[in-house]
## 1
Amino acid sequence: MTTPPSTSNLARVLAAGHPAVAVEISPPVGPNPEALHRQIELLRGIADVYNITDNQSARIHMASLPACIMLKEAGLDPVAQFTCRDRNRLGLQADLVGAAAFGITNVLALSGDHPVCGDHPHVKPAGDIDSINLVRMIRMMRDDQVFESGQPIPKRAPDFFIGAVANPFSPPFDFRPIRLAKKIAAGAQFIQTQLVYNLDRFREYMRQVVDMGLHEKVAILAGVGPVKSLAGLEFMQNQVAGMDVPESLMDRMRRLSKEDQAKAGLDIACEIGEELRQIEGVRGLHIMAIGAPTMIPGLVERLGLLPRPTL
Amino acid sequence: MSLRTRLQDRPFLLVQAWRMTEALLSLLAKPLRKAGLERASRWVRPVEKPIKRLLFDCQMCGQCILHYTGMTCPMTCPKQLRNGPCGGVCQDGTCEIDGETPCAWVKALERLPRTPWDHERLRINPPVDWQLEDMASWVTLAIGRDQVTTGSDQGPRYVTEILD
């Protein structure tokens, strides 16, 4: 791993050996900065970095980059997410240069859900480049100071802390650690995983990752997703691609009244978060509370992860 | 089960066909190079396209990596991924777009150990050069234009380079 840039709070927290906390923020759908500012005030001081999604679930939202700029101006450290779905290499690089110009260091490369899964099923996916080659391209921009065409980047090389994602719950399971290794070889420095509900599967994945020594080459943040209700859990299982929610968790929620479900949702997220922190190779948590951002501060508090280190 | 699926699931014949094609192409490399990519491609494409369309549902990306991907065309993936399956594969191995079509990469990785090129699962395949789309990949292969990475990247080509 190359020396992490000091402009990334996430990199500093990880380098100091603290367990890291990342929180996902979905930007507003309309041109509504107030909605984003409410989330910023709700979540300030709760995490080390804040991921801003890029047309999450292939549904239209404000772009990641302007929302990241708003976070940066509010004094929070953002992670700009870049999917390969909506932009070709020209567009991706243009936004990467823009991110660097605003001092946004943390970037996360992912394939992105296919448009047919979202609210614009009639659009053409870019599909110009895959997420592994996107990681590779970002690394080339930083380390070799060149664009993907080979043209030199004028003035200075952009400073990036490069992230990628992993889904241990999607078949073929024996290939998932190899795909992770490809991302590391391409230049990934931190990894954020899909939400963990099936702990057995995740432990098995991490065992393979540790056996290959990959956990020493990349910082893995495991996904935690508090839900407010049984409906929230069912949404995860049925509507979110590549998710694995065990039947036992569903049953536990089914037995409860509406009011008790919200409490149980938080309990479950806490239990999973605590278990994840014990697993070798897990360097932090990545909290994605789809439709339930108000649950996040309480969850981080209960996990004993507050206050966040100031470095 | 279609004939195509049967051939791909037991890829012995396809492996032999690939080997013969590769040998033939190395013999033809000189004249093809002399003719130039555009012209040679115009001659070869009418032969290559129908054969590979029938056998692999080939999408004519012009930079074939079939023998790295278990004789399964990665361009049939709706996201056209060249480096393995995305995180949207359903528990039963189907694609996120409809939950019915088998994931092209699940199939590719099932079939790869039945070919002599299983170690290629560790290869980082470069992004597609869209200038080669609809060119004959037999020509781009013969003249060595098919796997040219854009830019100046000298990074690892196989994950084994980063493993201890």
## 2
Amino acid sequence: MRASLASPALARNNKPGKRVLPGFALSLGVSLLFIGLVLLLPLTGLVMQAADMSWVQYWAVISDERVVASYRVTLWAAAIASVFNGVVGLLLAWVLVRYEFWGKRVVDALMDLPFALPTAVAGITLAALFSEGGWYGQLLAAVGIKVAFTPLGIIVAMSFTSLPFVVRTVQPVLEDLAPEDEEAAVSMGASDWTVFHRVLFPALWPALLTGVALSFTRSLGEFGAVIFIAGNMPYVSEITSLMIFVRLQEYDYAAASAIASVVLIASLVLLLAINLWQARYLRRLHGR
Amino acid sequence: MVSGFSVAGRLKGLVGMLAMSVGMVAPVQAADQEILNSSYDIARELFSAYNAEFSEYWQQETGKSIEIKQSHGGSSRQAQAILQGLRADVVTYNQVTDVDILQQRGKLIPVDWRERLPNASSPYYSTMAFLVRKGNPKHIQNWDDLAREDVSSVMPNPKTSGNGRYSYLAALGYAQKAYPGDEAKSDAYLKSFLGNVAVFDTGGRGATTTFIERGIGDVLLTFESEVNNIVAQNPDAGFEVVVPKVSFLAEFPVTWIDRNVERNGTEAVSKAYLEHLYGEPAQRLIAGFYYRVHNETVKKEFADKFPELELLPIEEIAGSWENAMQVHFASGGKLDQLQRR
């Protein structure tokens, strides 16, 4: 059965544009149906709800002073959180791939915890830890740093909830990197730094960037974890998701969808740009 | 939404609703009839107690058993669920606007729903009070103290919580009395009042946690009932209740959903369920949860728990709820202007 299916496919494989797997039309159909049902339909709903407004109204909603302030807070916090995650996540992935140590499996499993934990729980826990009476909070308070109920708290919550993105995107690429490449470089007299930035980094860079971008877009939309630690001060520590939530509380679905569309478009453009760039980069890297 | 709205609360509500739907499928001890009460977040305990009381009364009165299902969550979210098709028989909310929306958006109830039951369909009421730390070190007695430079306060966000809205309106009512006709002074007061807020939680319970567990702020602003409950639950913390002399009349409107009770065939029991809230046993039970009630006998019994004060209704402060929402809480409204830097 298998052979009979595989052999014509293999035979055809020599011709350009043919696939190894049969049933392309069916699988593409199923994929498109799912994309349609799961992704596009809700998005259409969002657009429909925002479509009740005129462009002038739309602009007025999304350019409201307080909402704009929330973009600034959200963008900055998400940017800092995801860069932080880029550094820490790379380090964690490196340790998990390249070293053997007792309890490695447990640490590896722990990496996914932020995904498993309901974000509201994460937010409340972080607020408890980082408020002035909390374990971390009292130490930080001694050096005059306030985390809970300041914009710093937003960064902490965002990086906590999105750290696994970086670890999990970098990890498989690291695993695929043959240690021989590094050994070859070292035997040819390269310093540690040269090995890192000439051999390892070029191969890791696309995955790392994807991880950071995912972490960033996740942070843009984060709500549950952030509102419990942010303090939610107007113009200072209000995130865009809270602005959407406020509009929903006012039964103003159109305005909520309008602000949501800004976040969505920003994320979409960013992910698309990263994808295009990555494709080009990989072509260059592999000399295709 | 509500006092006590929080994401955690919403999750609980969701779990509750899930459990409910499972309950509908599973073979439960079939009662003769069942109704669904859609209620606000922190009323879980109150209505559990009341439901037991009512079903006993209903059994005696009619010989029929009744099962009352509860659904709790932020009351704006709860109202949205009904608008989206949840067939709740009665609503017991803590914001008039959330019942109004059922009329305006869904035409599920008549325009004059408030006339159908005594006291504008509000069987009990409360007001906004202060909770201060042990010994009241900052000497907070009244609304003007909350605008002092050395005071930092915690209240839920008026944008996301009815509780927060009530506190804002109470402060506004105070300012109107303190500076009659002088809007500039009143605005300046409200600006410093809002400026002193250290954390704007999205709901009442969140604010309670911030004040008690995180130790933020000198004073917590929330319902008198919530404040008393906190003191009762944390007897060792030494928190003190301060009830300002003038405050806002916070109503807790109830009504049956005409469209749904018709379809569910539960009109009689739904009406009785709400009317019974005004009876003496129910009023006594409600007063035990630190809500103020209308029944004269019960009022006397609990006189020491509820200090006399002047309660300003929404009509006196902002004309009407509709007006209050438009002028003060809508995007670009008074609240937004006052919070602008």
## 3
Amino acid sequence: MQTPVRPPLRRPERGRVLGGVAAGLAAHLGVSVRMVRALFVVLTPVALFGPLLYVFWWVTVPLGDAAVLAGVKPAHQSRLAPVLSPARVQQLRRLPWGQIAVGTGLVVAAIALLLNRSGSSIGSSWLVPVLLLIAGVALAWSQLDAVQKERKVEARNRVSVLRLVGGLVIAGVGVLLLVGKETEPAVLVQTTVAALAVLAGVALVLAPWWLRLVRELGDERTARARESERADIAAHLHDSVLQTLALIRSRADDATEVARLARAQERELRAWLYDDRPEPGTSVVAVLRATVAEIEDTRVGSEGEAVTIDVVVVGDCEPDQNTDALLQATREALLNAVRHGRPPVSCYLEVGPTGVEAFVRDRGTGFDLDAVPSDRFGVRESILGRVRRRGGTASVVCKDGGGTEVRLQVPRAGAATEAADQPEERTMQS
Amino acid sequence: MSEPIDVVLVDDHLMFRAGVRASLDERVNVVGEAETVEQAVAVVRERRPPVVLLDVHLPGGNGGGGAEVIRLCQDLLAETRFLALSVSDAAEDVVAVIRAGARGYVTKAISGADLSAAVQQVAGGDAVFSPRLAGFVLDAFGTAAGDVATGDDELDRLSAREREVMRLIARGYSYREVASELFISIKTVETHVSAVLRKLQLSSRHELTRWAAARRLL
């Protein structure tokens, strides 16, 4: 048996109190969160060791979900995975009440200090400005969280800017209070202006370097995205196409099987390359394609040859009871066409605003519906009856030049009112 | 039997070119081959064939593939007609070559006899619609009953008759079968199909322009 792999050290986004350090450590070490937190508190009196350690880890440990990182996901799954899961969106939308409370407290403290200073001077209050300074720096640093998340969420950006500005203001006030304790207000203003000018100059000099850094980061990100896309495609080709080719080579003397394998692979590759992969249960077209795939995979034609069905679809909608009946009838019609007709077999599905139509066509000799004995249920019940019971129309047309076409049409459940009372009739008849 | 039609075959896969050459019947005569955009333009300009069989995806040029070849040969379109041949089902591929000026679009699964017939049709000035292309046209122009063109000059909508023809082609009908189904002559069917092709090329319909704009084809 394999020993379970220790999850990597990450700061989780959920279940955190401050920076997620304790929660991350607990998950990494496999101990309870409470114990870790208690340890931090216990270590506080020892020369502030606990908080310092906490801040150190807060800054250095990357953000992330250890559980997600530990389970290695296959490339094709991560490709389909939504960028933002609903839980995460909710997490982002929640207001940061804790931070707002801390910020408000700090601002109130700053104003109180200023008022206090302009009124009666408190001589030995260097402690308060220092605390203010630390609080400002902490507020600015706390946005490291936001930077590490590689998501451009508008609200998140605004909050991080607010944090930066607020932190700067609070820290600046702290510094001014600390340095200018004994000086005149006029001198204080002068030095402030001078300091700001120096800062602006430095920013101007460093700007190009910073811009280049940002651009390089962007380039690197695109390169990484391209790389993962390529790995994704390579993984898919290996999983499906190479295996099918190997199968085809090993069964080269069985023409039907080779044709079937090639067709199945072609279908899969097409779906992977061109389809927009609708959610299951939301697309009539997807259901039809699955039906056709099943028939192509499992049936053979009247002379034992591999089957190919050309499918053309126009529009799409969510399946309902009517379209289900239509698709079942279409399936029966396709099976008939494959079994008794002649290729090429074509299937056309059109989803209109009021109804859904399906046409199944083959080039066989056709048959006379009236000549089919009435005890044979195939066509009459499973194709025509099924659709008519849904308030639709159905007919079988045989052409002079050869070929049979089954024409089916049902109203869409939302569009036609008379379709609403059909289910009862159906239970009575079937 | 009339003279065989000269054709230039443009595709970047040697194996596929060999396959197409072998499958074409005596109605068609392959006079040149090319596998990149530059080669294709050079060969077409040199041979001046009545028909070019053109793959949608080609290396070289500015990455525009088959559509780029047609655009670079714009001055020859009166005498040389392009028939796009592709494995792709993607709407943007179809739109790209048709809007660039191709006279038809068939998928590579087409049989040799059908392809030869399609070449003949294109050489005769007609448009060639595969069921899939017809399905795409219906998708782009809409199938709602009220959305019907009333005049010939209306480019953004299909007339009721054109829509009927497109639906039959999408259902797998040949032009002959369409004609007998609708009790019209084959010539009339061809006129309708050419009209639809023209609309597809010139229409400013929202769906078409969106696709084209998104791929910087305009």
